[in-house]
Predict the structure.
Amino acid sequence: GGGYGSPRGARVRDNEYFDVHRPLPPLDLGEEDDEEPKPPACAVCCTLFSLSAIVVLAGISSALRSDSLYFRMETEEPKHSFAESVDQAIYIYLTTLVLSLIFWIRTYTEKDLIADRHDNHH
């Protein structure tokens, strides 16, 4: 098995990389004060992928609502009855978009937050 008593489990348990209690790593805000901060690659990728998925799914939902001839269904149910499921997928990608944008924007505001905390404690 893969429990903590197994050799693999011991490797996971002893590996600090997998420590769920470890705080998030600091953002790479640049070495110099004048250097432009770099957003996390995951935030950029997730933002762009979510936007693309929302656009594609919105097109599919619109086509389903209009009972488009471009979709052949294996069921006798009307095509527009499937649009709600596609809309739910859009909501999931909207949530992903918002979360990834928060991390992207945080890249540019984190330096100011750190400076404010430093000024308030001294």
Summary: The two ends are 52 Å apart (CA to CA). The chain has three helices and no strands.
